[in-house]
UniProtKB/TrEMBL annotation:
CDD domains: TM_PBP2
Keyword Cell membrane: yes
InterPro entries, per the entry: MetI-like, MetI-like_sf
Protein's name according to its UniProt entry: Aldouronate transport system permease protein
Subcellular location: Cell membrane
Main subcellular location: membrane
Gene source species: Paenibacillus hunanensis
Keywords: Cell membrane, Membrane, Transmembrane, Transmembrane helix, Transport
């Protein structure tokens, strides 16, 4: 008999049954968590499967059976209409990808610099500038002044900068970045200054590597904002332009089909073959498909960025 067993017998301790009960409770809790998370994942996946199945269904089948995950009558007519002009949709994809990549990189850099500067205790006007940024979350100048600013003063009508510039800064994201950078001890900045580092060097080599969780989150917000952008493009990019963002292009496709159907109905002409409902689902797949396909490739970098910056020392 080994020494641990002797000590257990002498002391009257019975750790083995307690250990067994602890292991059993851990297994139960773990499986309960798997079941809950799995059910939640299925609930999140079902709407997309419903959209995907309906997009490959004929319009008559949708009217008869409703939206279904598995198509009763398989049809690609909705996608044929969406991709009727491949050159336009490819150009729209390229415009959206370019705006998303460039806007995310520049916007993330500006938001990070602004949040870092506003939390510096040695920055004299940080409270006043923070007030002006927070003030814009409560009050807005309205659509007309914004439109005049872009078209009359900045002269960005029919220019992609009219879509790029408004999305670079967001008061909510600046406040989020400021709150996170505040958790980084100011002593790190002071010690770097003693070693002769400048403000920009401190920001690039110390603050940014330690702010990866906030950068990953804010970058995701900015990228999704640019990818889903259509309103500013509708205001400032005229139909005369060769290529406009993807969301606006798909929006115009759906509204055109809806207009044709309503016009035919008012003229007592049957237009039941116009796949309006299935076309809506097809445009949703076209808009979200690249994001879903691209996410598995960037997921590990996203998680790595969070875990690297989770512990600061």
């Amino acid at each position: 008999m080994d020494m641990n067993a002797k000590s257990d017998l002498i002391g009257g301790n019975t750790p083995r049954p307690a250990r067994i009960r602890s292991d059993a409770s851990e297994v139960i809790v773990r499986w309960f968590g798997y079941i809950v998370i799995g059910a939640f994942a299925i609930c999140c996946l079902l709407p997309f499967l419903l959209i995907l199945g309906t997009s490959f269904t004929s319009e008559s089948s949708v009217k008869k059976f409703g939206f279904t995950i598995w198509p009763h009558e398989f049809s690609t007519f909705a996608y044929q209409i969406v991709f009727e002009n491949p050159k336009l949709i490819i150009g729209s994809y390229l415009v959206t990808i370019g705006l998303t990549v460039v806007g995310t990189i520049i916007g993330l850099f500006i938001v990070a610099m602004t949040g870092y500067a506003l939390q510096r205790p040695d920055f004299t006007y940080r409270n006043k500038i923070s007030f002006f940024i927070y003030f814009t979350t409560l009050f807005s100048g309205g659509l007309v002044p914004f439109y005049l600013l872009i078209t009359q003063y900045l002269e960005l009508k029919d220019n992609y900068l009219a879509v790029l510039l408004p999305g670079l800064l967001s008061p909510f994201l600046i406040i989020m970045m400021k709150s996170f950078v505040r958790s980084i001890p100011h002593a790190i900045t002071e010690s770097a200054k003693i070693d002769g580092a400048g403000d920009f060097t401190i920001f690039l080599r110390l603050i940014l590597p330690m702010s990866t969780p906030a950068l990953a989150t804010i970058g995701l917000f900015i990228a999704l904002g640019y990818w889903n952008e259509w309103y500013n493009a509708m205001l400032f990019l005229s139909p005369d332009m060769d290529y406009r963002p993807l969301q606006l292009f798909l929006y115009n496709v759906v509204t055109s089909a809806d207009f044709i159907r309503n016009s035919a109905a008012s003229s007592n002409v049957s237009m039941s073959d116009v796949p309006l409902e299935t076309m809506k689902m097809a445009t949703a797949v076209v808009a979200t498909g690249p994001v879903i396909l691209f996410y598995p490739f960037v997921q590990r970098y996203f998680i790595k960025g969070i875990t690297v910056g989770a512990v600061k020392g």
